Amino acid sequence: MAKRLDADVCSIYLIDSDMQHLTLRATQGLDSRSVRKVTLGFGEGLVGLAAQRGEAVATEHASQDPNFRYFPETGEERFESLLAAPLIVQGVTIGVLVIQTAEPRHFEPADVGLLQTCAQLLAPVVTNAQLLALAGDTEESRSASVSEIVEHGIMHGPSGARSEHNVELEGIPTSRGIAIGPVYRLETPLDLTNLDYSPSDDTEQETQDLREALAEARREIDGMREVVGARFGPEFEAVFHTQIQILEDHGFVSKLEQGVAEGGNALTTLRSVLDAYRRTFERIEDPYFRERGADVEDVGKRVMEKLLGVRHHIQPMEPGSVVVVDQVYPELFAKLEMDAVAGIVAEHGGETSHGAIFARTLEIPAITGVSGLQHEARTGEMAIVDGGSGKIYLSPDEMLLAEYGRAQREYASSVEHLDSMRERPGETTDGRRISLSGNVGLLNDLRLVEQHGGEGVGLFRTELLALAHRGFPSEAEQDQLYRRVIEMMGTRPVTIRTLDLGGDKGIPNIGLGDEENPQLGCRSIRLTLENRRVFLAQLRSILRASASRTVRLLFPMISGLDELREAQRAVADAKRQLSDRGADFDPDLPVGVMIEVPSAAICADALADECDFFSIGTNDLTQYTLAVDRGNERVAHLYSPLHPAVLTLIARSVDAAQRADIPISICGEMATNPLAVPLLVGLGINELSGTPSQIPLVKEIVRAVDSGEANRDARRALRASSVQEVHAIGAERLRAAGLLEHPDIGGWLQRIVEPILGKV
Ligand code: PEP
Ligand code: MG
């Protein structure tokens, strides 16, 4: 390290067993007699400060820094500049890696990055070494020492010794249900750019190392492909197939081997081959092929890790763990033993991220956008995750544990009981029929629509296939997927939405570039209209599926009549192409418009005249009406589909649909919001579509409500002056309908309603 960073000193300090002090344990450059003698308190001196803050500390003039501590035994007066990075394992600081220079030096961000990366690599090595050092001991003393390290060194670091109970954090409720279990933290991935690499002197050996790295990467991808395929369905294996193809590609491998033979360095060869590929892919016009560049990069990074000998230290997870992460990336589901995961909590991200949708599919309680989470949560401490309210409690006391244990049991038995009554219709007390269907994106979701009694698929989010592929899926792949959906749903209706990419559903290399404002940029129908070849391929595929006569076609994010007409022209073209090929399809395939941009709701009359149905996407309608980014946890408190302005736009769309005599449904998350359900019924909505697991809850609410009363509530809500007022109207209806005493859902509803009615 000292050599690489051109420093005079490099030292390692480790935390003592008393968990209060750091001791110098190894040094290059300081007086070696000071090893094990120099000790400083946690938070003391610049080294202690790095440990306490859990982040790097850099200073050009250490002696002038108020935090500087001087130890004569090290001969330290000779060193002017200092850079320290903490060694962190499972979120707890176990030591500090330090470099010092005699000449004053301003540390560049690259120096800080390199030291941090090395500290990240070193931390688990140190812990493992501590464990290995015990290997010679007797079985008894070894296990005692191991528990000592685990108990004190890792699980309860100085920042981990928590005396308070019920530490409450809040985020965006992302997947309902309650999880109670020990915290399991996942470390952030390594930044490889700063790592150093020494090639072998022997070119043969270097070539051999490269081949081994390629083979190891291949084995890893194979493993992930199997896991993801088994969990989410075969269509999700596709991304791994592509990566395997790249590793087996003769051109790719021979370019690498040739480069090593000429230059003798596998890493620089890999980097330059990847750069050349990246440039080539960037120049490809066809977006489908252009996006394959991302796969090459991904594969390259994996091979690089193998060359550098990077190992991912995934600690064993206790069954029933609450996983704490920075963001819920889809990869997580391939990496972790999902059977052991009880809940997922993320510091960043919104409820509509791809990973969040996976969590909902697996019915794992999840919360996203929890600020302060990674600072607070400690490995091993108990946590309660309430995916319904978005609350997390760390180190809960006995009382809270008992309360949530009860709630968890109630939740499980209620879901079971309600599922057993799935055949009952969704009908108000005065006999108005409300159709209840599910939103799906993965084949697995269809099983849940069945289990929870959905009457069909109200929204099929086809972009999930694109997200899995990280690019536009091919026509053949879509044919296959839609055919399976239709088969699985039998005679039940399926509404297939065209690709809704961009915005928060960005994928690399589909021509989006770096938009400053992606939610207002080239997303959704705008992107598909720009990529007409891709759009036509999808329309042909949906039309072929429509031969079953159970399909409806839906356009997302239509903002005005011109856009609808352009999309309709593409449908006409696709029909013509299919007719020319003699393919079978439904010539009267119903074509619907999503109302999710305020302009569409305002101009709903014009749109209603030229389409067959409306489906209101309240997730986006709320975002665009209130100017609140749906994925930004900072403004989440302002995001409410029950805002009178949003209700007004819904009412306007319903009126237009009724005038034109076309059906209208809701397919945003609002459709399963207990406070909203009676109001939506009251506004005249006849179909609600949401996360499959929520269908039984919505059905019980619908079955307890009188549509005349719901209509009066809706009229009042439209005149309300605040979200709180609307919440109170919704809550009062749930209470008056006797739903708070409902044997299955009464408990959940009370938790939602009581704080509202209490405040009124
Ligand atoms: C919506 O915006 O409400 C919607 C259903 O679409 P998505 O959540 O996929 O954007
Ligand atoms: Mg939307």
Major beta sheet summary: 8 strands, mixed
Molecules bound to protein: phosphoenolpyruvate, magnesium ion
Strand content: 15-25%
Indicate the structural class: alpha/beta
Q: Span from first to last CA?
A: 63 Å
Mean pLDDT rating: 86
| Fourth-tier CATH superfamily name of the domain at 434-589 | Phosphoenolpyruvate-binding domains
Number of strands: 22
Low-confidence stretches: 149-160
Choose one word for the global shape: globular
Q: Main sheet: which strands, in order across?
A: 7-14-13-9-10-11-12-8
Seen as an oligomer or otherwise, the chain set is single chain
Report the CATH topology name of the domain at 434-589. Answer: TIM Barrel
Rg computed from alpha carbons, rounded to a whole number of angstroms: 29 Å
User: So, CATH architecture of the domain at 434-589?
Assistant: Alpha-Beta Barrel
Q: Can you tell me the CATH class of the domain at 434-589?
A: Alpha Beta
Instruction: Quickly count the helices.
Output: 28
Question: What's the gist of this structure?
Answer:
By secondary structure, the chain is an alpha/beta fold. The protein is built from 28 helices and 22 strands. Magnesium ion binds next to α22.
Structure overview:
With 760 residues, the chain is of the alpha/beta class. Among the domains are: 9-134, Beta-Lactamase (2-Layer Sandwich); 203-308, PtsI, HPr-binding domain (Enzyme I, Chain A, domain 2), CATH 1.10.274; 434-589, TIM Barrel (Alpha-Beta Barrel). It is 46% helix and 15% strand. The strands form 3 sheets. Strands 7-14-13-9-10-11-12-8 form an 8-stranded mixed β-sheet. Strand 11, helix 11 and strand 12 (366-368) form a beta-alpha-beta unit. The longest helix has 30 residues, at 203-232. The protein is globular, with a radius of gyration of 29 Å. The model is unreliable at 149-160 (pLDDT under 50). The structure holds phosphoenolpyruvate (PEP) and magnesium ion. Phosphoenolpyruvate binds at residues 352, 459, 461, 500, 596, 617-620, 667-668. Magnesium ion binds next to helix 22.
